[in-house]
Amino acid sequence: MRDIYHLAVSVLVWLGDKTDEINRLELFISNLVNEGYVTKGDKWGREVTGIETKARDRGERKQPLAKFIRNESERLLLKGAFKGGMGLLRGMQIGLDVEYNSLSDHLNDQRVREDEYLQRMEEIKSWSPNERQLKLVQGEDFQAMATLLDKVLFSDTQYFDRMWTLQELCVANRGLVEVLEVNLEDLLLVFYYLQRTFNIRHLSFEKITTLFEINSKFNNGQRLPLRVLLALSAGRNSENPRDRIYGLHGLMKDEQNPLLKPDYMKPVAEVYANVARHIISTGESLDVICGHQLLGRLSELPSWVPDFRHFGLEASSLVNANGENIIYRASESEKHALPEHPFHVTREWQTLIVTGIFLGNVSVLSDILVPGQDLQTETFALRERLWSAKFIQSQEWAPEEAQTVGNVSDLVAIYAEFYQNSNRATFWARNPDKLGRLRAMIGNANDQRDGTLGLNYKYFLTLLCGRIAKETRCSEEELSEHFARSCIPDQEGIETLERLCKALDAGTQGRRLIMSERKQMGAATEQTQENDMIYVLMGCSVSVILRKTARPNEFQFIGECYWHGFMDGEALAMRDGDKVTAHEFNLV
């Protein structure tokens, strides 16, 4: 690891055609000495300081300084002075200015042709270093290198976390990271290579990818909608919460209107409410109010207004924050009804008028997993135990129905044991008895599919929130196929079971089982309480949970909801058949 940290503060490798001043080399060497990574008396200290002397003697007349430093750096690398060398960073300097650990951007105002602008994303994702570069770093710890880059670029600086970075970098033709003196796309080359080849992943990597994608589209004449930009910039910091919105104005595709007009005198709640109203009116959809973070919200926000500081951070939400690839159709193609002047500022900005269909009250509610407890198994299995325990204790069901749910719970427990194992590829070969039990359970589940009203499938689909992946729905027929495939211990079967386990985790994360007095079931946010009301709202892709206030015809929005059997327009079919009635009310 000592060699890796030598790399972290020092190594100059392959400066390419860049030209450096001699004082930069002096600063580089002095940083090495000042930080205690080398001393002028030790072996490598003598080698490093020797570069400075040789450079002064030769001067640029005999050999360009950049080329000389590159050659000397490679010589040191080959001799073993700095073993960690980042030859992976194709033709660029790696080395940190310890005294000036800051990032800045270099804006080139000259227009460039589109085909000269940036390397295409697919080229960057598929790039690999040449054999010579790989040979120089053969046997090195790439995980440590990736962690190091992540630390220097993200953990030790706030630049990429800033909201205004989007404006500064995303409109530029070229972006230069001054700490490393490399271009953003060059950093992406390395990160993608490490990710693809060594399965090394860092969450911060997405921050550069996001900047690159927005930059690429912007400079190619493509502007993104405000809602998409809000999702892409999730988690960025700004001293003023209003800048979470105003910092995107120069990038967005949306046309300016009174709802979006910058005004730092308005309360943050009003600014956010106006933005939510703008997005709702633009798409005639209420989906933007679903899926947002419920904990840690600004207390002054109306219940239906997302806290845009955290918008887009709910990974397991039913509705994608960017509004794309929505897989549910609870209100079919029915739009949210707009007022006469939808983009005008209103004095009643705290209130949103909606139309909805009442589906039932929450009568049974599962307990919540206690945070911080010692988890001995996968969390989706622990959450499911709480769900099934409440189901069985509720006395709403016949004994055979409760037994059916208990069987599903046993099935999930085996899935969790498989998923928790570090060597899933050989799990069934090492545990043939458990594979036999799994096959027996799947066989029983298929036998009971048409009996007990298919309760086992309804319950399992509720655990999944009706999907096998974030953007892929799952029907009873498809679930039966997944069950059967998960019993076969080959690669496809193992991958199928892994997808099921991931879907179980996403479906139960942050949710609790809810049931109505009519024995209908669903999954709702942990903030749901007994007697809350389940609704389908016109213009909303998913069912929702509402809570009645003391005022007539007024509700608080609690959150999105998976309500089994009502996610594909069934409520509207009932309305059209005069079985239920839609009515208008206020969200506050």
TrEMBL record:
Pfam families for the chain: Het-6_barrel (PF26639)
Superkingdom of the source species: Eukaryota
Protein's name according to its UniProt entry: Heterokaryon incompatibility domain-containing protein
Source organism (scientific name): Hyaloscypha bicolor E
